[in-house]
Specification:
Layout (H helix, E strand, L loop, with lengths): L2 H13 L1 H9 L1 H6 L7 H8 L7 H11 L6
């Protein structure tokens, strides 16, 4: 899983209310048209997200799904 793509996704989710709303309505379509190059695993994580959650809970869940850097 690429940390860069998921980090960009999280940045956009937290900074762009319109993008966040689009994800709530159509996660697959929004990601396809976003220009983010996600792996299938990352797409599955996006599809598995409960986009109806309040913004603060979304941010928390996304941060937990981000790959951790190697030590």
């Amino acid at each position: 899983m690429s940390a860069d793509a998921m980090r960009r996704l999280m940045d956009r989710v937290t900074s762009d209310p319109s993008f966040r709303q689009q994800l709530r309505v159509d996660p697959d379509g929004t990601i396809r048209h976003s220009g983010l190059d996600l792996t299938e695993e990352e797409h599955a994580a996006v599809r598995g997200m409960d986009w109806a959650l309040p913004d603060d809970q979304l941010q928390e869940r996304l941060s937990k799904r981000m790959p951790q850097p190697p030590f």
